[in-house]
Amino acid sequence: MAVAEPEEPKRSEGTTRRRAVRADAIRNREAIIEAASEVLAAQGTAVDVREIAGRSGVGMGTLYRHFPKKEDLIRTVLRRDFSKWADSARQAAIEARDPWAALTDFYQQALTGYARHSAIMENFALTWSAPDVAGIQQLRLVIEELRARATDVLRPGVTTDDLLLLLVSLGHAVQVTDECRPHMWNRLLHICLSGLRADHRELLPAEAAPDTNSWTRLLPGS
């Protein structure tokens, strides 16, 4: 027992140090992701990772231990920020009691958030189509819920795919107009939403080739 007594604090100290290292690693990773989110939103994916390391307060070695490739960091940040973006738009829609207001608020909030995040703007169609469709599927669920609520105020024949592709299309409108004519995409949004209202009774053209994934082939990089 006399020999074993001093070993206990050593093991305890070793465990404590390992826990401290893990805690530091978690904090560093979170700091890197937060800094990267800010920089990517402001500057897009062409940003130099040295700026991200500087803002997060870590060295380049630490950054590369967590994210060996710049693409790994971008993918992680975009997944997180995309989810936050979609959830924020969904929450705004949920808070609107009127089904039409819920649908329009979703588009307004989604595209406003989109315009504020350069990296999401650059990668929306490319990153969230094939092969990683998690973001698009997340949006699909939100839009399906909104479409179901708004059935009575939507024109006949409007599908979830129609509403999802409209969001992707308007996202491109944001990309090409936001800097030079920032209100143009908002005007286009209102024109498009007007065309979705139930008082437009004429039938929509049928799809040439029914395919649940056909819309993805319309996205760049698909």
Automatic annotation (TrEMBL):
PROSITE patterns, alphabetized: HTH_TETR_2 (PS50977)
Q: Which residues bind DNA?
A: 48-67
Could you identify this protein by its name?
AcrR family transcriptional regulator
Q: Name one Pfam family in it.
A: TetR_N
Keywords attached to this Swiss-Prot or TrEMBL record, sorted alphabetically, are: DNA-binding, Transcription, Transcription regulation
Q: Which source organism?
A: Nonomuraea angiospora
Q: Where is the HTH tetR-type domain?
A: 26-85
| InterPro entries in the record | Homeodomain-like_sf, HTH-type_TetR-like_transc_reg, HTH_TetR, Tet_transcr_reg_TetR-rel_C_sf
